[in-house]
Design brief:
Layout lengths: L2 E7 L3 H12 L8 E8 L5 H11 L3 E6 L4 H11 L4 E4 L5 E2 L4 H10 L4 E9 L5 E2 L16 H7 L10 E4 H6 L11 H9 L6 E12 L11 H20 L5 H20 L2 H15 L9 H13 L1 H31 L6 H17 L2 E2 L11 E3 L4 E3 L10 E3 L5 E3 L4 E2 L4 E3 L26 E3 L4 E2 L4 E2 L4 E2 L4 E2 L4 E2 L7 E4 L4 E5 L3 H11 L1
Helix pairs in contact: 1-2, 7-8, 8-9, 8-10, 9-10, 9-11, 9-12, 11-12, 11-13, 12-13
Length: 513
Amino acid sequence: MLLSLILPVYNVEAYLGRCIESCLNQDLPKSEYEIIVVIDGSPDNSIDVAKRYQEKNKNIKIVTRENGGLSAARNTGLQEASGDYVWFIDSDDAITENSLKGIYEEMTRHSLEVLWLKWHNMNEFQERVPLYDCTLCKEDYSVQNGLDFMCSVMGIYYFAWSFVFKRDFLNQNGFLFKEGLFYEDTEFAYHVLPLVKRIKLYHKDCYTYSIRQGSIAQTISSKKIDDLLSIVNTAKTMDAKYPGLICFRRSASNILVTVLNQSLAIGYKKGIKQVKYILKSFLHHDLSVVGSGPNRLLIKCYNHGGFALMKALSCGFCYIKKVRNYYRNVRLSAIRGGQKLTLVPSYLYDKLLAFFYKGAMKYCGKHVYIRPSSSDFKGLCNLSVGDYTSIPKGSVFYCTEAPLIIGKKVIFGPHPTIITGDHRIDVIGKYIMDSNDKLPENDAAVVIEDDVWTGANVTILKGVTIGRGSVVAAGAVVTKSCPPYSIIAGVPAKVLKMRFTPTEIVEHEKLLR
């Protein structure tokens, strides 16, 4: 048996069929892999769903047990597994079609103990949700030992389903998930990965992570907060065991901010006090700036202004989450009821979320208009925006390496795309996505000066400066800089004419002063 797919099941009747089907739609013969469905005392009809699939598929094995939680169900599945490699899959998620053969070949080709997979997020509306900036530190596809991999490649997330493990490696070291603990994935990874001698990142997206209300990851309780604090203490222990490494402190930074947000949301005073204590005794004023945009802003506030400022802003963030959840519920009700949804909740949510995005920018002027919930911003710390500039929904701004500088009173039409870097295409013997060692010329700043107007669906690439007062026609792809007061259009964009004569420019700028 080559692979064992382990599916812990509890109250996922509505999603289990989709998950099992994704595990069946694969490019390995069914005789070469098994699907182990662990019914963890589930009170719904999940077992009936599993049995319907088992009747037609001999590689499905159903195991029932008393409810013991996700960790216990995974451990049961591991004990039942007979494959050379095991993959723990959450039963409300799905894996990518025809992915198993490539995963198996990758692990055997490189003699890996662990393979780390790429994934994407999907919300209740079947819309892709962007990954946080710190999901992946570096796209490095070389084989490394576990500690080096945690520090240089992995970000702050250690989901069990993002790893495929060699079963003998887990069994020989006696690795099991800690039972009775929420967020056991991270605690498990803290202990497992430092002992790994051969691990690498897989170049394909193999997993769909479903973000839905009511799932374990999306609900808050004092027990979950206490478990997160326990994991931070484990990180503290591992940091002392492996001094000088950033990975445990980086992970703990994000978890502590999450604990503060959740504790404030439910009024859990013990959690708030514990965060303050751990910050003083462990991380001090040296939190790693990681996680979502709001979390990054909170960490910056703590590093520069202390716990009181971070706590105050976190209260504001909790209010935003309440508005967001209200809007999500209204939207779901409207979709299920066939009704039209007012745009007011969306607009209010954007107004609140924009406060945190602006704070995470390198510079943000006054009266800047942005719609962050429907846009994709990467590298906010490299983004500068001047006064009165308007950035519409559907904007895609990627400035992870080189800066993006936008002047004042700039108007963007719908769906602008600005990217300050590109991939290497000159490396022989490597796929483009595997060519990670960028040259200096692969990233260059984009500057959009004051009073520029771009039409709809404009794309602006690295190294471009658009002079003040210029107009960019809809659909243009701008690859070269243009002088002030140009009117440009086309693919690639070219200067069609000037807005004013030199004399008129002097008069115009004199009147603007």
